[in-house]
Every structure is written in structure tokens, then in C-alpha cells.
Amino acid sequence: MAKKYIVANWKNHPDSWAEAESILNYIDEHLKGIANQESSLVVCPPFVFLEEVSRVIQLSQLTQKAELGAQDIAINDSISLTGGISGMMLVKLGARYVIIGHSERRWPRGESAGTGESNQIVNLKIKQALADGLIPIVCVGEKDRADDYIKWLKQQVGATFAGLSGDQISRCLIAYEPVWAISTNPDARPDTPESALESISAIRDFLAENHSPADVRILYGGSVTEKNAKDFLSLSEIAGVLVGGASIRKEEFVQIIKQV
Ligand code: PEP
Fold this sequence. Notes:
Elements: E1 4-9, H1 17-31, E2 39-44, H2 50-59, E3 66-70, H3 87-92, E4 95-100, H4 103-106, H5 119-131, E5 135-140, H6 149-160, H7 166-170, E6 173-176, H8 193-211, E7 217-221, H9 229-233, E8 240-243, H10 250-257
Parallel strand pairs: 1-2, 1-8, 2-3, 3-4, 4-5, 5-6, 6-7, 7-8
The chain binds phosphoenolpyruvate.
């Protein structure tokens, strides 16, 4: 069985390094003695904690179980960009993964258009991350479950991966995250595994037809908790889960990891 990815997206939490360290120490403590060869844990803290999280992972037993990811990357390593963090900086801090195109960046505060990252920006960030040797975790997903959402999703996937070769797509992880299912949205509810599989198949088929990748690894994200994680993780078509809110609830997160 292929390894399952458990990706922790801490977003802009927790507020202090002391709290962040206590999450890591708790995970380290509670995974001791568990071989966990079936899963790959990726911790994506806010930029300000990257260096410290990297150090804790290296100096603890987490070094055999966890890898470091960032939550965003500058669009291009070689242009000046106020506030930007380049891919090469991430690599030097020990990051191996980077989340790209999260819906909270595509549509900040749920705004409908114009304020966030376009598919084209996401596409350029994927190319830069790959050029830097990082593994992009590319988020896609429809905002609403309208009748034609599969058509909309394919358009988003098409524009997000435009110009990428099959080999480049095989090197990415794709996170299918229906925006309405992300826990920070009002009325959020998790997708069902059955309906998530429909979207995941549509994404896989679209990429196969248009880019012929040797492999397409697709995770599910959206209100994953200790109660429903296994429903998604047990499906062979789903390569893992991207966990937001529950990833900073340390007791719950450890329970999610243990379900692989
Ligand atoms: C996310 O923000 O990527 C996410 C999946 O969040 P949550 O698990 O809180 O729904």
C-alpha cells in the first residue's frame, strides 16, 4: 500500500512559539514507539516558526516521521517582492513541501473575485517550487456545489496546471479541498468520501487526458477530524488528508495520525 500523507496546515496559528513547541512535543511523545511506516507527516507552520519547527523535527524522534512544509512561496525567486519568501529560502530552512493555491489565498475572506491569487499566479508558483526542488501541495476545489461544479473544477485544474508536463504533475501532491467544506467557512460540513471520490476521479481523468502523468496523488481536505479521517484515509484513491483546524488540536491530531 502506498504511504498516506497527513499534512498539517497550521495557517496563522498558534500565536506563540511556546504553543507551537508544545504541539510538536506532544506529537513526538505520543508517536514514540509507533513505527508509522504507512504514513508521511508533513507539518506546515506559519513562516515565523519554520526555522524552529525544522530544528525540533531534526532533534527529536519526529525526524523519522515528519517533514517540513511551508504554506506559500513567492511567485519568482529572482524578482524583488516585498513580503515575499522565496523557494530557495524555504529550501535552506529545511522545507521539502509547500502548499500552493490554498482557497484562503485564492479568495481571502471568502471574497468572490479580484482580491486573491488567480490560477495563473498559482501556476507560476508551482513552476517555481518545482524548479527549487520543492514538492508543491496544490490546492484545488470548487467554491459551491453548483450543478456544473465538475465542469468548473476541470477548468480550475486546467488553468492551475497549464503548461506543466506529466513528469512535473507526478511530482506534485494535489489537495482536493471543496471550499465550502473548509471548517472556517460558515455552515462548513465535510464532503462525503463518495462525493469527494467523484471530484477526485474527475481531476485524475482530466490530468490523464491532458498531461499523461505517470502518477497523480490526490489528498482530501475540508473539516477532517478524528471522527471522519479514517473514512477518507481508507480509500485507495485518496493519498492522504490535508488537515487545518484539527492539526493544532494536538490530542485530536495525534488520533488522526494513528488512523493510518
Ligand atoms: C484547510 O484549511 O486546508 C483545511 C482543510 O481546513 P480544515 O481542516 O479546518 O477544514
